[in-house]
Amino acid sequence: MTPSRVRPATRADVPALLEIYNHAVLHTTASYDLEAVSLDTRLAWFDHKQAAGWPVLVLEESGEVLGWATYGPFREKPGYAQTVEHSVYIREGRRGAGLGRRLMLALIADARARGFHVMLGGVDADNVGSLAFHARLGFVQVARFRQVGRKFGRWLDLAFVQLLLGGEGVEVPPGSPRNLTRR
């Protein structure tokens, strides 16, 4: 067996990312999407991420993508330019083995290297596993929005978790996403 590794995703990885994501969409409240996403939609998402310079990382083992993570703008207003929001998804049957931790540590390191100050995540408030996972990485729950989502015939609460990254006074290269004009 080839050891697992975290690396930047390529367009060729998108079908595997989509498979992992759609499983979460159809079977969990990790995403509040209600229907599976199409390959064309996910390819457009990936192309947009690439064009904007946002990272998409995958964890691969023996040529199989077992998980992925990304971040992007929290909100489009310039005052939020130091804050990013992340997502992390692990293939069904492979959760709880430290793969998400490896992806998140790489993602956090990337965000710190680019000089971002805060990383946020939106987590279904009933997902105690994800909340505990984030807490082990240093995230703190900072908000709980009651009944803002609806899926599987019930109202869902959304928790926001936050990690202070630092980033004050860090020189940011001109091409980094933080310096790109956002529309």
What can you tell me about this protein's structure?
With 183 residues, the chain is α+β, with helices and mostly antiparallel strands. 28% of the residues lie in helices and 32% in strands. Strand 2 and strand 3 form a beta hairpin. Helix 1 packs across helix 2. The longest helix is centred in the middle third of the chain and has 15 residues. The radius of gyration is 16 Å and the shape is globular.
Which structural class best describes the helix and strand composition? alpha+beta
* Total DSSP E strands: 7
Poorly predicted runs: 169-183
Helix content: 25-40%
What series of H and E elements makes up the topology? EHHEEEHEHEE
Let me know the largest β-sheet: 7 strands, mixed
What is the overall silhouette? Answer: globular
Distance between the termini: 45 Å
Radius of gyration: 16 Å
Total of DSSP H or I helical runs spanning 4+ residues: 4
Strand order of the largest sheet: 1-2-3-4-5-7-6
User: How big a fraction of the residues is strand?
Assistant: 25-35%
In short:
The protein contains four helices and seven strands, in the order βααβββαβαββ. It has helices spanning 14-27, 39-52, 99-113, 128-136; strands at 5-8, 56-61, 64-73, 83-90, 118-124, 140-151, 154-164. The longest helix has 15 residues, at 99-113.
Q: Which terms would index this structure?
A:
seven-stranded mixed β-sheet, 183 residues, 7 strands, single chain, alpha+beta
Task: Please write out the topology.
Elements: E1 5-8, H1 14-27, H2 39-52, E2 56-61, E3 64-73, E4 83-90, H3 99-113, E5 118-124, H4 128-136, E6 140-151, E7 154-164
Parallel strand pairs: 4-5
Antiparallel strand pairs: 1-2, 2-3, 3-4, 5-7, 6-7
Helix pairs in contact: 1-2
